[in-house]
Amino acid sequence: MRSDVPLLDKITWYIVRSKGKQVRPMLVLLSARLFGPINEASYTAAALVELLHTATLVHDDVVDNAYQRRGFFSINALWKNKIAVLVGDFLLSKGLLLSVQQQQFHLLEIVSRAVKEMAEGELLQMEKARRLDISEAVYYDIIRQKTASLIAAACSAGAASTISDARIVEHLRLFGEKMGMAFQIRDDLFDFGEDTEIGKPVGIDIKEKKLTLPLIYALRKADRPTRRYIAGILRNESERTEKVAEVIQLVRQSGGLTYAREAMCRFRDEALELLHHTPDNPARTALRDLLFFATERKR
Predict the structure, then answer these.
(1) Interior CA angle at 12 toward 99 and 97, to 5°?
(2) Residues 4, 114, 199, 235: is their CA dihedral positive or negative?
(3) Which of 257, 217, 250 is nearest to 232 (CA)?
């Protein structure tokens, strides 16, 4: 991530210092270790995934006008949107160049496909948020593209770095996709104050008019006047804290949180079943632990 441009070097140093849990590169290396020793291709895949993930986060903060990331100021908060977009582009290009220089074109294809799906998922969510007409099926499409696709790519790229069997690589991709779906539902539950140690303010998804699974369930179960009342808040009063609190309470009373937790556990169980059909070694145990971390984390 080093650069000869002093400003860029300063910003990338800041990004490295404020790095997150780095779950995705861990998934790459553990998926690789399932089938053989970690090699140079495995490290390339891990770096590629983390670079592209970081690039998408920098761009997401611009899109969402977010000024904090992982307890630090976001890049756009400190250096404004124009610089943040260019920094995201720089990180994206570094990831692409890394894979090309290492001639790991199959890894580049796996991760590039995920980045394409992430962009499509984000745009689909924006389109549906305007009309407030997201069904449960569409919600699953959105989170599969927005979140699960990169986690799936991390697992399949890791496997592809140590084994050439396309069926096994696809098996790991499916495991990662199921894990990613559970991961995102857990993240959505945080928005309703399910835990006090969350990493984002309660109700932020509601303020951004994002229809997550607990809210979709509440709308489906509500009578027509209640649905219209909630829709009115989302359209016109989502910036008012007291109105957001009302929506959260209505979702809780509807059983939306319980419904979402059950869906999360179903995806986790499906991922566990897929993992069961891989070699029994310490890497598999660690992947299982990461899967449970994804659904039991406090932030």
Answers:
(1) 15
(2) positive
(3) 250
Length of the chain equals 299
Cα–Cα distance measured from residue 206 to residue 257, given in angstroms and rounded to the nearest whole number: 14
| Cβ atoms of 250 and 222 closer than 8 Å | yes
Residues 6+ apart with CB under 8 A from 71: 18, 199
Torsion angles phi and psi, residue 249, rounded to 5: -65, -40
In the block, residue with structure tokens 């630090």: 72
CATH architecture of 22-279+286-296: Orthogonal Bundle (1.10)
Which tens digits make up the pLDDT trace of 64-107? 777 777 677 888 888 888 888 888 888 888 888 888 888 888 88
Q: What is the pLDDT of residues 24-33, one digit of tens each?
A: 999 999 999 9
- Bridge partners of residue 193, in order along the sequence: none
DSSP 104-146: -HHHHHHHHHHHHHHHHHHHHHHHHHHHT---HHHHHHHHIII
Where do the domains of the chain lie? 22-279+286-296
> What single-letter DSSP state applies at residue 68?
E
The DSSP code for 299 is: -
Q: How far is CA 84 from CA 2, 55, 90, 117, 266, in A?
A: 16, 9, 10, 22, 38
User: Are 152 and 180 within 8 A, CB to CB?
Assistant: yes
Q: Supply 27's token pair.
A: 């998934």
CB atoms closer than 10 angstroms to residue 299: 13
CA–CA dist 51, 101 (Å, integer): 15
The string of pLDDT tens digits covering residues 140-157 is: 999 999 999 999 999 999
What sign for the dihedral angle of Cα 21, 94, 119, 137?
Answer: negative
Q: Quick check: 131 pLDDT over 90?
A: no
Kindly give, in sequence order, each residue whose CB lies less than 8 Å from that of residue 22, ignoring residues fewer than 6 positions away.
Answer: 50
